[in-house]
From TrEMBL:
Belongs to the glycine N-acyltransferase family. PANTHER family: GLYCINE N-ACYLTRANSFERASE-LIKE PROTEIN (PTHR15298:SF17), L-COA N-ACYLTRANSFERASE-RELATED (PTHR15298). Its EC number is 2.3.1.-. Keywords: Acyltransferase, Transferase. Gene3D superfamilies: 3.40.630.30. Transmembrane segments: none annotated. This is Glycine N-acyltransferase-like protein. It is an enzyme of class 2 (transferase). It comes from Takifugu rubripes. SUPFAM superfamilies: Acyl-CoA N-acyltransferases (Nat) (SSF55729). GO terms for molecular function: glycine N-acyltransferase activity. InterPro entries: Acyl_CoA_acyltransferase, Glycine_N-acyltransferase, Glycine_N-acyltransferase_C, Glycine_N-acyltransferase_N, GNAT_dom.
């Protein structure tokens, strides 16, 4: 189920496509911190006419608000063929697949009191089960942990990250500078590659990781560079909130500039589709931080995002 709620009004209603677009416009005024939620909304507004069973709830929008989303529904399929991509809408996953994925909550908030009210509303967050709040503003972490403590739910900070985003695409690697032998091997991942990606993903390696990556590859754009046998040696994916991630190159293929090619290729694809380009990078991942900054990605130095686990 896909839901979006705003807590300033106790009255909830089904959100129309036009209202989703309005919500998106409001959130665009709060970039870059609202990237994660605005991209979830943007993906919803892109496919709402083809997802008749999806639900979206929202209260009244004002200047200060808290908006929370839960997302399991895919929205975009994309594949590369000889360096070119094609996209189409995707059908909803089966219930078994959804049940195996991590339960994730995202929010954007300009009013901490509004967020607090939302978190204490039992109908908004299911505190009885394991879930993750992703993209939590570090400035609000104390309040969230306080609410969690009041509900006698254990919590821990899963990871802290830089929010990086691209404003000027001129810093990306020019397509003409990609060696022809590399350009000819740019492709997309498929389901036969799930196990490989899961084994190399820091947060994967288990059944939930496998299911998450299956979702990413099936329903979102991916890009990889293959070897002479057609097997991926370097890849980048999109998370289900449209952030670039899972960038990885097999150790024996590093030092060849593959990451630069993949980041630039994926960024151009997103720009062509009208999507903002952004990513989250772990605080201690200096190599990725340098790779993205060298390609023109910037950040708000006063902001850090955190992922919190509950009922772990």
């Amino acid at each position: 189920m896909w839901e979006t709620r705003v807590s300033l009004s106790s009255k909830m209603k089904i959100l129309s496509k036009a209202e989703i677009v309005t919500a998106e416009k409001v959130l665009l005024k709060h970039l870059p911190r609202s990237f994660k939620v605005v991209l979830i909304l943007k993906s919803k507004s892109t496919t709402v006419s083809k997802c008749s069973t999806a639900r979206c709830r929202v209260g009244r929008f004002t200047v200060t608000f808290a908006l929370l989303t839960r997302t399991d529904r895919p929205w975009w399929r994309c594949s590369w063929t000889r360096g070119r991509s094609s996209g189409s809408s995707s059908a909803a996953p089966n219930n078994e697949s959804v049940g195996k994925t991590r339960k994730k909550v995202s929010y954007y908030c300009t009013d901490e009191n509004a967020l607090r009210k939302m978190l204490v509303d039992a109908d908004v967050v299911d505190w009885s089960t394991y879930f993750i709040i992703g993209g939590l503003d570090m400035a609000q972490i104390s309040m969230v942990k306080e609410v969690s403590s009041q509900r006698k739910v254990n919590t821990r900070t899963f990871i802290v990250l830089h929010l990086m985003y691209l404003i000027d695409s001129h810093h990306l690697l020019p397509e003409q500078e990609v060696p022809s032998q590399v350009a000819s091997r740019i492709s997309s991942l498929d389901l036969s590659h799930v196990d490989l990606v899961n084994k190399t993903w820091k947060f994967g390696g288990d059944e939930k990781g496998y299911s998450s990556i299956t979702n990413f590859i099936t329903n979102f754009p991916s890009c990889c560079i293959t070897d002479e046998h057609g097997q991926p040696v370097s890849w980048i994916l999109l998370y289900d909130y449209c952030a670039m991630g899972l960038l990885y190159t097999l150790p024996e293929h590093r030092g060849k500039g593959h990451a630069k090619v993949l980041i630039s290729t994926m960024a151009r694809r997103l720009i062509a589709e009208g999507f903002p380009v952004y990513c989250f990078i772990e605080e201690d991942n200096t190599l990725s931080y340098k790779a993205f900054t060298n390609l023109g990605f910037i950040e708000d130095p006063t902001y850090r995002a955190a992922w919190l686990e509950f009922n772990f």
